[in-house]
Amino acid sequence: LTGDLEHFTYKSIHHYLVKSAGYAKAWADQRQAKGKKATLWQGISHALGCFVKMYLLKAGFLDGKQGFLLAVLSAHSTFVKYADLWERDQHKH
Questions:
Q1: Distances (CA, A) of 26 to 7, 8, 32, 84
Q2: Which of 29, 36, 47, 56 lies in disulfide reach of 78, CB 3.0 to 4.6 Å?
Q3: How many CB atoms are located within 10 Å of the residue 21 CB?
Q4: According to the model, what pLDDT value does residue 1 have?
Q5: Chunked in runs of 10, what are the mean pLDDT values of the chain (93 residues)?
Q6: Distance (Å, whole) CA 66 – CA 16
Q7: Using CA atoms, how far apart are residues 5 and 19, in angstroms rounded to an integer?
Q8: Residue 92 and residue 84: Cα distance in Å, rounded?
Q9: Using N-to-C axis directions, what is the helix angle for 40-51 and 64-90, rounded to 10°?
Q10: Which residues in 40-65 are b (16+ Cβ under 10 Å) and which e?
């Protein structure tokens, strides 16, 4: 097999956001079922960590704008899952 093999998991940014929202909800459902809670600070810190990991440690910067965009979107998804779990706890009060 010669040449490059490309695999596109997402059709568009919108498609990525829709799928990641579903994953975030499932994550928050599982955490809530275990009695876990989240803070917005956890969401921020984990999102920043996700960005640093993808963009710097995994060399996403080598992929140019696409690498930056993927790191930002991944960080956003990470924040959303923590925010979802945090929001559920806020509605109890």
A1: 25, 23, 10, 10
A2: 47
A3: 14
A4: 60
A5: 70 92 96 96 98 98 96 97 95 73
A6: 13
A7: 23
A8: 13
A9: 170
A10: eebbeebbeebbeebbeeeebeeeee
Token reading at 64: 């140019």
Q: How many CB atoms lie within 10 A of CB 87?
A: 12
Q: Which residues 6+ apart lie within 8 Å of 48 measured at CB?
A: 75
pTM of the model: 0.85
pLDDT for the residue numbered 2: 77
Exposed (0-12), middle (13-18) or buried (19+): which is 22, by Cβ within 10 Å?
Answer: exposed
